[in-house]
Amino acid sequence: MGADSAVCSASFTTVVKYGIESMSDLASILLSERIIYLGMALASDDETRQSFSLGMNVTQLMIAQLLCLEFESNSAITIYINSTGSTDINSNAIGHETEAFAIYDTIRFIESPVHTFCVGVAMGTATMLLACGASGCRASLPNASIILNQPYNYVGGSSTDINIQVEQLLLSRSIMHEILSIHIGKSLQQIRSDCNRIHHLTAYQALHYGIIDDVIAAP
């Protein structure tokens, strides 16, 4: 091995640097290289995260990581995305779109350019985050799945409560559609139509659609 090497085990790594061994968690190693990995759904509450074995509040963690890296320097940050966004794989809502909006607003707030890269799947609000990367710096691996959809939220309670929930749901969908339209360059009408049903895209179809700028294939 060279001067720097790493042997991976679970979520921790034994890092060997200049002959000195130390333990470090993988997230910290990635963060030191200005890399953030979104590898889970954006669940909103503790009960939902527990039922899906998600554990942490990934939204709070990502925002903290973005702000931390922005504090260090204005160099580029890369977000690797393998997430179904605020839904499960069947488009059932397990979180609120506001989770993704908070991450999106932070990306737009910081001065560091953010590069986005899909590895595996980007779905719904995760596709929105993929699309909002810096122009020319949004990419995907060739076998990734990129999916446009909108969640099917459960609403209940009194008629007044239902009306309030439906109004909020429609507002969130409208915001997501507007963000996608801005970063993809397609009309709101087309975005609404394409998100109305689950719309699966290959990496190359997503490239043609305007969600990403490049497909990175093996040399």
TrEMBL record:
A biological process from GO: protein quality control for misfolded or incompletely synthesized proteins
Organism: Paulinella chromatophora
Annotated family: Belongs to the peptidase S14 family.
Keywords: Hydrolase, Plastid, Protease
Record keyword Transcription regulation present: no
Gene Ontology CC terms: endopeptidase Clp complex
Molecular-function GO terms, alphabetical: ATP-dependent peptidase activity; ATPase binding; serine-type endopeptidase activity
UniProt keyword annotation of Protease present: yes
Protein name: ATP-dependent Clp protease proteolytic subunit
